[in-house]
Design brief:
mainly alpha; 7 helices
């Protein structure tokens, strides 16, 4: 007799297994879309002054706290990454290069800005940027997935 190797986990609530199996196809697109959509309003705030934001204030903060100069260049770059990069992630186009840019952005945010405020995101700490860095790394490694324009055009980086 040989032992059978089980390839799937058994569910604690077996009745939900069918639903999980049917919906698992959408798990990756949901993560990628929500991640990209999360950044779009941040970019709108910087680039278009929505919700009281302005790019000059961001530029001052970048020069003063992070020490990157010229701050206005970096502020526009970050605003464009958040707005346009967020949109590209939502549709899954150029997914890996955009995710790589978000990895760099969130690394700098985590370790060169937010770390001065400690850990907790409620105090402006590095908890949230590290989470966003981890998700960007996963998107970089996995790519756009089955439900993406990258897959639709048949080309990925």
């Amino acid at each position: 007799m040989s032992a059978q190797v089980q390839t799937r986990s058994r569910y604690y609530i077996p009745a939900l297994g069918g639903m999980f199996d049917r919906l698992s196809y959408y798990a990756w697109p949901v993560l990628r879309i929500v991640y990209g959509a999360w950044f779009i309003p941040h970019g709108m705030q910087k680039l278009f002054g929505v919700w009281g934001g302005n790019v000059q204030g961001v530029a001052k903060g970048i020069e003063g706290t992070v020490g990157l100069s010229p701050g206005i260049f970096w502020a526009y770059l970050i605003g464009c990454l958040e707005f346009f990069g967020g949109m590209l992630l939502v549709v899954g186009l150029f997914t890996r290069p955009v995710a790589a840019m978000f990895c760099i952005f969130m690394y700098v945010a985590s370790f060169h800005y937010n770390n001065q405020f400690g850990w907790w995101w409620t105090k402006g700490g590095m908890e949230m940027p590290l989470l966003l860095l981890g998700i960007a790394i996963a998107i970089l490694l996995r790519g756009g997935g089955e439900v993406s324009l990258d897959r639709r055009v048949g080309r990925e980086f």
